[in-house]
Design goal:
Shape: globular
Structural class: alpha/beta
Distance between the termini: 36 Å
Largest sheet: 5 strands, mixed
Radius of gyration: 14 Å
Number of helices: 7
Number of strands: 5
Order of helices and strands: HEEHHEHEHEHH
Amino acid sequence: MEHDVFLRAALDEARQGLQEGGIPIGSVLVKDGRIIGRGRNRRVQQGDPMAHAEIDCLRQAGRVGRYEGTVLYSTLMPCYLCSGAVVQFRIPKVVVGESVNFAGAPHWLRAQGAQIVDLGDEACIGLMRGFIASNPRLWNEDIGV
């Protein structure tokens, strides 16, 4: 399944972020069947509260022009910040690894016209669950609790 390749690439980004001491959330942007941007949550690494995985991914992709036909993959359901970027750039489809550990903003995204696919991926769920259990203070800081 095509989703598997791209979700695994996002998961690789998440794992790399964890190795760097960050929060394990990864993202890739796909256009015409190829990855044009990769990112990971770098909030800790860069000391930047805006450096979420999807934002980092969009920055790494650079100027795309029109986002028609793109798909944003993320290991975790996007928060409202990242969902706002999806809506701003009119990214038509978001595929997420999971929404068990963080519900995010899928209803709002759908109301704005984005298609959301939640794969319920066990590797994504387990990675985030383990991180939250080991780093509750950092996790709660990131999601604004």
